[in-house]
């Protein structure tokens, strides 16, 4: 990996990128590192090694980064060529409020959201399946995510399909031959509806309120709406999905949190 100082030296040698401010460099690396799965998923299989940054960014991501930084896609391509190793190695840091608005203004039209939902692995996890290639058959659905720090967020929910064993992989479970298998452990996001996800921290907060504060599910829902939502940021008509948090969503998160976390849970799909 190029040290950060060497990367900055290369930027200074570029006729356009030399004028990019330090804040612009930080914004580029923060946004790009946040989109690693979105960068990797569209790549051809030979360029899908998760430990190596791909040489080329997908066009929607180039357009988003270019619009966010006021740069052409050619300059974004050059910036990626210089900073890709650094971006791929740094840990993902939380997005700022400005970043969320950049996603809303420039990302949503490109099919990108601040939160992207994927299965935990991009390869088939069936130990009896001979397929060891990254899964590229995918399905996308719009979703809403209830978070503790950023309120209601739009998201794209991506599921992957293995053509060999016919297993479909989702955020916190897989489906094969009519059986839904929940992965061991708790994911960061819990699916509580066809298009609804809850951050595990939020679900834990609701459970504590219900166990120790004698809250009902409806009151937990009302508390979230009154304290953790920004009506100016997320408008249902802009995303095509309601932001309404129902008592069923709260109860479903409670049930999933109560499942044993150290072993797989298998449920027959009806």
Automatic annotation (TrEMBL):
Q: Which residues form the CxC5 like cysteine cluster associated with KDZ domain?
A: 113-227
In terms of domain of life, where is this protein from? Answer: Eukaryota
User: What protein name applies here?
Assistant: Predicted protein
Q: Which organism is it from?
A: Laccaria bicolor (strain S238N-H82 / ATCC MYA-4686) (Bicoloured deceiver)
Taxon lineage: Eukaryota, Fungi, Dikarya, Basidiomycota, Agaricomycotina
